[in-house]
Amino acid sequence: MPLAIRRWLPTRSRNLRLLAHTRRLLLLVLPLGVLAGGLLAWIVKGSQHLGEFLVHHLSPGHLILALPLVGLLLATQLLDRSGVGEVSLTDDIHMSHADPYLAFPFRSSLIKAAACAATVGLGGSSGLEGPGKWLGAALGLQLHRGATALSVRIRPLRRFLASARTMVASGAAGALAAVFRAPLSGALFAAEHDGHLRTAHLIGPLVAASGGYLAFAALMGHAPLLQMTRPYGLRWTEILYALPLGLACGLIASGFSALQAALRRLLAPMPLRWRGVLGALGLCVLLAPGHLRFQDLPITLGGGVELINHLLAVPPDLRLALLFLALKLLATALTLACGGVGGTWLPCAAMGASLGAAFDAWLLPGYGGLMTVLGATAFTGAFHGTLLVPVVFLAETTAQAALVVPALVATTVAYLVAQEWD
């Protein structure tokens, strides 16, 4: 056989490497994704039932206005008394790329998970995607720890081991795919680091995200995260309108980042437990308009998916949209600056959707919803410094490919403006 042809044929060593990769993906990474997605499905379902229970029992006597006093105080007291102190889930994820075992010690991980649950479920303005990504990453590391210990006693198991970084990214991808109900967005968000994506680093997260989404869908169904009320076409007018929307999203996202940093600097000298008291009181005030004026619409509670779907379902109103934007922006900045623990992706999407709804009322009053979802994408991309993930997130969560082109325009403009101002 000619040498040129033999070079292209699979060799025994190449077949063994391929077999080893396949074993890791099927026997370690895929079950991790299924486990993370299933766990997040139960957490999402539990948070939905908890929210309905609290609204039903606390709204009649306006007791729901005191809910942040429970959530933020519980989170900050737990972090303070346990010695864990102020938490940044983003810093933990970044640290995991350098030393995963340093980022997720077991005891601290349990305490942070409890603080996340108190913040997100009991009155804080933060998203479940941050704790979900962190929890999936921590779960991946613990599974790596257990598999490594087991392989010491059972030597053949060493062939199935994946690196700690791969397990961390894969666990995060499985969890995010469940939170977003979008497997590709979850994989990209988990694999991206400092704005960079490498194809080799996507293999594990893609497999885990697929498993995580299937586990979530089996328990919760296939309904998309954002409930679109109409299909949208691709016209030049929407692409042109995306330019000023992107500009506004970039400027306000930069303002939100600056406000959050300023509040952190201002409150840094204050002990964490007293910061929790101050933040809880502020959140109680910001919660009042949604409870008293809008029939318990969760404007400042949680990530903001309910707020986005509300904006998509009703005719756009300029003043209300700007009011929602201000309330969500202030509540999220206050929650995180005062010691609360949670994600910023979904709150940013809610802020951008509110801003987009204002553009809908101004530019497209008879074609509402388009600027709303474009604003969610552009604002999220501007604040998080990423272009690809929010656009893919939009396509998956709305199931409308026609939105991709104007979303790319708006997100690119917002990203460039935010980078320049930051």
Can you characterise this structure?
With about 425 residues, the protein is an all-alpha fold. Helices cover about 75% and strands about 0% of the residues. Helix 15 (about 345-365) crosses helix 16 (about 370-385). The longest helix has about 45 residues, at about 10-60.
Brief summary:
The chain has helices at residues 3-8, 12-58, 67-82, 89-98, 100-103, 106-121, 129-153, 164-180, 183-191, 199-220, 236-267, 272-292, 305-313, 318-337, 345-363, 370-384, 388-398, 404-421. It has 422 residues and is mostly helical. The N and C termini lie far apart (62 Å).
The number of helical segments is: 18
What is the string of SSEs from the N terminus onward? HHHHHHHHHHHHHHHHHH
Number of strands: 0
- Gross morphology: globular
Average pLDDT: 84
Q: How large is the share of residues in beta strands?
A: under 5%
C-alpha Rg (nearest Å): 22 Å
Helix content range of the residues, please? over 70%
Terminal CA distance reads: 62 Å
Judged by helices, strands and strand pairing, the structural class is: mainly alpha
Q: List segments where confidence is low: pLDDT < 50 over at least 5 consecutive residues.
A: none
Largest sheet: none
Question: Which SSEs are present, and which pair or pack?
Answer:
Elements: H1 3-8, H2 12-58, H3 67-82, H4 89-98, H5 100-103, H6 106-121, H7 129-153, H8 164-180, H9 183-191, H10 199-220, H11 236-267, H12 272-292, H13 305-313, H14 318-337, H15 345-363, H16 370-384, H17 388-398, H18 404-421
Helix pairs in contact: 2-7, 2-8, 2-10, 3-6, 3-12, 4-7, 6-7, 7-8, 8-9, 8-10, 9-10, 9-17, 11-14, 11-15, 11-16, 11-18, 12-14, 13-15, 14-15, 15-16, 16-17, 16-18, 17-18
